[in-house]
Design goal:
The complex is a heterodimer of chains A (129) and B (637). By secondary structure, chain A is α/β, with parallel strands linked by helices. Chain A contains 6 helices and 4 strands. Chain A is globular, with a radius of gyration of 14 Å. Classes of the chains: A alpha/beta (129), B alpha/beta (637).
Amino acid sequence: MSQSTDIRQGTIIRIVDDDEDIRDALSFMLECKGWQVRTYGSARDFLTQDSPSIPGCLLLDIRMPDMSGVQLQSLMKEQRIHLPIIFITGTRMWKQPLPHSKLVLWTFCKNLSTRSRSLKPLSRPCALA
Amino acid sequence: MRAIFGKQILWLSSVAALAVTTAAFASVSDSPSAPFSKPTVLDETTFPEPDIITGASLVALPNRPVRIARIVLPELPSTLQATEVTADLLKKAFWPHPVEFETLTSKELTERNREGQIDAFVASSGYYWRMTQYGVTAVGTLISGRQPDPNNATALAFLVRAKDERFNELYDLKGYAVGSTFSTAFMTYRIGLAEIAKLGEDPENFFAQTVFTQRTDNSEVVSLLDRGLVDAVMVKACWLEAQPAEVQSRYRVLAPRYGGVNCKHSTDTYPGIMMAVTQGAHPIIAHVIARTILSHPLLPDGHRWAVTTDMRAVDNVYRLLQIENYAYLREMTLQRWLETYWQVPAFIALLLLGLALHGWRTSVLVKKRTAQLSSALTEREKAQAEIQSLSEHMESLHKVTVVGQLSSMVAHELAQPLSVIQYYCESQRDILKNKPINERLLDISRVGIEKALARTRSIVDKVRSYNRGNTSRDDSVDVEASVKRVCATLNAELLRKTSFNVLCKPALIVRADKLEFELILTNLLKNALEASHEASHPVVIVEAFPCGDQVTVRVENSGKVLSEEDFHRLKTPLLTTKATGLGLGVTIASALAEANGGQIQFQARPEGGLIAAVTLPCAVSPLKTDSVTPHNHPKEH
């Protein structure tokens, strides 16, 4: 608990999801846990408005209109934005391992999953990564 | 018949021989008689002496007068006079034995004859021949200068008006009216009919009408012609020749013949007036009559008595007419009927045989046909059952696929509010840990959960109502939103490799069921993605644009060039067990589009690939535009 308190300082968790309800709920939950959160309705908003210099991670929805999470990931790689990405998805249609997905925050993911076993949607992508 | 005939001739010859001998004998004994004057008054001094036979035998005669009858004769006056003179001669011959002489009708004479009340009679050869069945014997035939041959002493003449050019042959009279004396008259009627029969016609129906005067006078018959009642008349031959030249010029003998009788006549010739003794009459009477008439050479107008030796012509008349002695010819015995009309039973038998054959053949055919039909029916039923089972199978496949696709869509839909709820629950856990409890945060999470639950419930309700089959399909569905939503569910890996373009005009609203519309799009897009993946440069273009009262969503994909067969298979529902894959998805999409009042059209893309266009009715009807526009307005910005 004390370790995580340290991390929460000076880091921002970015959420990119086109579904407003999901966005709100997820950010609310993380804020309740003491994280600083920024939400974006689309990949484009994230690219234009986010400040990549602030460390943290990105919770990225795979399926989005206009630009999907996967497309954003490759774009971020091109722009050398080395922000760890945690993919989130509402469905279980995720079968193939993601390319270029080695950039994952193991510790962050581990902490989240061990602390709350009920967060299945989160735990699955973590395991895959 | 021939035997009887021969016998008859024998009789006649014997009578003739007897007559000749007695005549010769008489000529020796008789004093030469004075030239004949009309002997209406008996002159006792002219009576011949009884000869040896008669002299001895007259005593043996019955104690009653000798009865001689004369039939009513439609003869010429001179002939009638000759018969009367003959009667007077006979009265003298039998003297002092009384002689009764009377004139009777044919019927009366027949009656008397049958009862044996007549000893001798004078009648036509026809009547005599009829009476031969009662055993009468001819003793003489009247001849004259014009009719010298006793076998051919009389004939009949058909007279027509001299200027009537309609008739030249007897046959020409067919269908016309004729006149005659009596229906039983032999010489003025029956031999005329016989002539018709010889033409091969039915004599009884040859003439349209036959008028009988019931009088003996031929002149009266001819007067029928004058009065225009008939077209032709039958009279005795020689009647015309006996008339004054002025009368003769008025008439003409039809189809005149010559010979036998020395007058113009239209028929064959027959023996004339005959004297006959009846059966059982005393031989002395026959003897006296024969001796008297044959030995008296001269009667008025050149008449004499002679002997007929050929009655075949007369007999033939009766046979032809099938009357009197030959009336039995009309009574059809079975044998005669069969002989005459053997064709009829033969025809009937043939007909029956034919019917039986036909019936047999028909029943065989019917059996055959029935068998064919029932087998055809069975086959058809079988085929129908097969189709039924196939279509049931198809339907169940559809259902399975639709349900599968729906459930995955529903799962996708549900996943979002469920995630939301999970996030809020996780939040609440943290909120409750930090004392004092931040009620504002708790309330936010509660509101969030309620909202998510409402969304869940609406999805569940939607699925429930869809399952119940009472889908309204009247919802206004935003095409752009639906396309976006569907695109989000597509395979990300495939999407990444594909040049995927969505050109959606804003504010396009279709009237459909949202779930079904999205299902249609899902199928089309999924197919397009998968198909385009086969090409080296996968391209998928989604376009949505208004098209009159409708909205068209066009999904174009690159891919291999479709063959005719592929294209055909795409448009026809697949009757295979292949439950997955392109075909069924397309048929489901088509069925759903039709259910929503639209349709899907496929078109081969020239550069390879396929264009699928789903057309659905536009939700914004012109009347509703005002009320709907404000609602849609914000979305345009």
